[in-house]
Design goal:
The protein is 41% helix and 14% strand. By secondary structure, it is of the alpha/beta class. A six-stranded mixed sheet has the order 7-6-8-12-13-17, with helices on both faces. The chain has a three-stranded antiparallel sheet with strand order 4-1-5. 46% of the residues are buried.
Length: 577
Amino acid sequence: MRRQIYRSMPANTAGIGQFAVWLGCVALLAGCAGGMSRAGGMQLAGCPVNASRSVDPAEGSTRSAEEQIIVDCELPGIQYEIGDGIFYTSPPRPARTSVWQCRVGGGKQMTFDAANLQKVENVWKGCAEAGDKIAQTYLGEFYERVADYANAAIWYRKAAEQDYPRAQANLGFLLAKGLGVAKDPAASDEWYRKASGLPAHAAAANDSALVSQLRAALARANQLLDQAQAGLKQQLAEKQALSVQIKPPPAQPDPAEQQRNRQLQKRIAELEQKAQADQDRIAKLQTQIAQTKTELRGQGVESETTASAPVGRYFALVIGIDDYTAMNRLQTPVNDAKAVAELLQSKFGFASVTLLLNQQATRVQIWHALIGLRQQLTENDNLLIYFAGHGQKEDREGFWLPVDADKPPHKYTWISDYEIAVNTAWQDMRARHVLIVADSCFSGTIRNTGLVSAAQPTVTAGQPRTIIELKSSSISRKFLTSGGDEPVLDKGRGNHSVFAAAFIDFLKNYNKPEPLSADTIYGQIEAAVYDQSSRLGHPQRPLYGPIQGAGDADGQFYFRPSLRTAENRALAGSGRY
């Protein structure tokens, strides 16, 4: 929370028990279509309970927003007759389902924290070991949340090999970053493609020797290009951080301060030389890549392309709270939210923008809006969620505070990062792309890991659409936060916070016809926010990356200026642009 200036079942079951575990995982699906009811019904793949045991999922539309929130639930075991007069009660069964389905099924909600990991592990592991791909994926996600990447990779791979897209995307991320497994960009790319339903890279078995050499050279050049771009970004960030530490000469010379400034200036000069070398290297590699692609085309090998996916409609939920019932009043969130909402509608042609300000942004109303979107969005649509207000952290978990939030430690009135991630995950909210922008204290806790997403591939001149179409076809679940695991400023420039001012200005001044990626926005405003906040005495650095466990498959959220016309907004109703 910010101050006045801040925003602020056993694992090894044998014989009859093992059989009952399997039976509890798969036999309860009779009479159920499977999947998630848009009205908040149960997830019926793998381990979850038969919905006919409780209530028809279609009745979820009559339930309150709070009752339709997706949660992890432990359901009681079921008694089976497995012989003449022989009965067995299965262990408790895990499910990811709505609150009301959990209640009517006689279950209890499971909350995640590090101390609770053993219980969570025991609950999901029985079904995971019995081969249920969804249980395997959930178990992998719990391991990942506590940085046990080796076990996460094991369970993701088991589910991925059963063609479960969410596990394939999660495994792709670990392979890309080298977390718990050896870093393997090629394998990562293939798992991402499988998760997105894209065709695998064409086999090179019939390639000539020259084509094989050119393919290898192209792959190597792309790998070196990614490394050079990552190095350049790191050097520029370090230079920016060091520059703000240089102090102007004092009235009375201070030898220690002078020596410190000289050391900082020397390091900055070194970084500038390295950055220039990387920039030259990047230019040469881009030329090399373009030439190699030309040679491949000369051998009859066309650049791989992907059929364009429908752009879909654009929706936004924008929340701004400064007048809290039980918290300190903030200065800028309402102004920030209004400005963002206006830009999304006027410049980027969002088909629907829901704006919740102050007393409209209660916990119930926020969930009501999210559940409504979950029922409305289709698999080609795009959703932006923007939150500006108080944030809080308890243990290892971050929270958004609605206007009616109680003071700590009464977190039952708050909205956790985990709840947001679960309820915007691919299998529960069928939008292709979701971007969550949070300007609140401790908002960076949503990242789960400290890693930003992989750099977007470079596109050579004359092929500006290829990567955009590929990224648009893939699922994305990304976050952009105003800071990390710390308080952030509620002031900055004019009537906006330091983060909102940079975010709004960049969107407002973007004047190119090409779609604008969230990657680009982050790259452009990160240094500006850090510099401005440092000058105000409280440095904060924005974070950006995939929301782990939410189904991100290395896709990209794009803002599209060409949608700003009335004609394009009208086309939104037809589901195409």
